[in-house]
Amino acid sequence: MIKVSDHALLRFLERTGAAEGEALRTVLAQSLQRAHNTAIRISDGEYYVVADGLRYVIRNNTVVTVLHEHAPT
């Protein structure tokens, strides 16, 4: 069976209009903003936000990856 990479899936969604990449980026940023505001008061650099079974890795004010909650880092 043919596989589809994450990169290819994102490009497909953007280019077919099935999902707007920038709109998805905005939704993700807005959903993490409250946790980010709290985290930057406590720590600078890198931190994680865990929500809905996913772990968001945030480094220098940028979400750099999204992992399953229990995946090794």
Please characterize this protein's 3D structure.
- With 73 residues, the chain is α+β, with helices and mostly antiparallel strands.
- The protein has one domain (6-68).
- 45% of the residues lie in helices and 26% in strands.
- The protein has 2 helices and 3 strands.
- The protein has helices at residues 6-16, 21-42; strands spanning 46-51, 54-59, 62-68.
- It has a 3-stranded antiparallel sheet with strand order 1-2-3, with helices on one face.
- The longest helix has 22 residues, at 21-42.
- The protein is globular and about 45 Å long.
- It starts with 5 loop residues before the first helix and ends in a 5-residue tail after the last strand.
- The model has no long low-confidence stretch (mean pLDDT 86).
Shape: globular
Mean pLDDT, all residues: 86
Integer tally of domains: 1
Order of helices and strands: HHEEE
Strand order of the largest sheet: 1-2-3
Largest sheet features: 3 strands, antiparallel
Strand content: 25-35%
How many E-type strands? 3
The parts where pLDDT drops under 50 for at least 5 residues are none
Oligomer: single chain
**Proportion in helices:** 40-55%
Number of helices: 2
Compute the separation of the termini in Å: 29 Å
| Rg (CA only) | 14 Å
What structural class do helix, strand and pairing data support? Answer: alpha+beta
